[in-house]
Amino acid sequence: MNPEQEDRGFAGLLGIRLLEATPHLARVELDCGERHHNIFDKLHGGVAYSLVEEAARHLLAAAGREGRVRQVNINYLAPAQAGQEVVAEARPAEAGDGELLVAVEIKDSEQGRLLVSALVLAEGA
């Protein structure tokens, strides 16, 4: 991804930053601030979902696939607190018949604690 494009769109609005993108691994990060939290002062599920999708899309783009996301199965395992930095890592899990299954994990950058586990099913070229 072009650095000038990194701050554009919804991901830029949230403050999501691209760390790396290859066909085998894509990583994005976010500094969790108050604007990212729900009424319980935990990372909002919609923000976590956005991190999952952004990491998966960068993986797809690096693999030369510009398909659409058909399904996301997301498991919220532990909350992120205000002030934490989190990293979402996407890896291809399986490919076939024009579809790609991507496994995404969101972890606390400091302790490596698993916060979210997700599977993204994408289709397309």
Strand content: 35-45%
Distance between the termini: 18 Å
The strand line-up of the biggest sheet is 1-2-4-5-6-3
Rg for CA atoms: 14 Å
Number of helices: 2
> What's the story with the biggest beta sheet?
6 strands, antiparallel
Q: Categorize the overall geometry.
A: globular
**What helical percentage do the residues reach?**
10-25%
**Overall average residue pLDDT:** 88
Q: How many domains comprise the coordinates?
A: 1
> Based on DSSP secondary structure assignment, what is the total number of beta strands?
6
Order of helices and strands: HEEHEEEE
Q: Poorly predicted ranges (pLDDT <50, ≥5 residues)?
A: 1-5
Quaternary status of these chains? single chain
CATH topology: Thiol Ester Dehydrase, Chain A
Which structural category fits the helices and strands? Answer: alpha+beta
Per CATH, the architecture is Roll
Architecture overview:
The protein is α+β, with helices and mostly antiparallel strands and 125 residues long. It has a single domain (3-123), classed as Thiol Ester Dehydrase, Chain A, CATH 3.10.129. It is 19% helix and 42% strand. The chain has 2 helices and 6 strands. The protein has helices at 9-14, 45-62; strands at 17-21, 26-31, 68-76, 85-96, 99-108, 114-123. Strands 1-2-4-5-6-3 form a 6-stranded antiparallel β-sheet. A hairpin with a 2-residue loop joins strand 4 and strand 5. The protein is globular, with a radius of gyration of 14 Å. The two termini are 18 Å apart. The model is unreliable at 1-5 (pLDDT under 50).
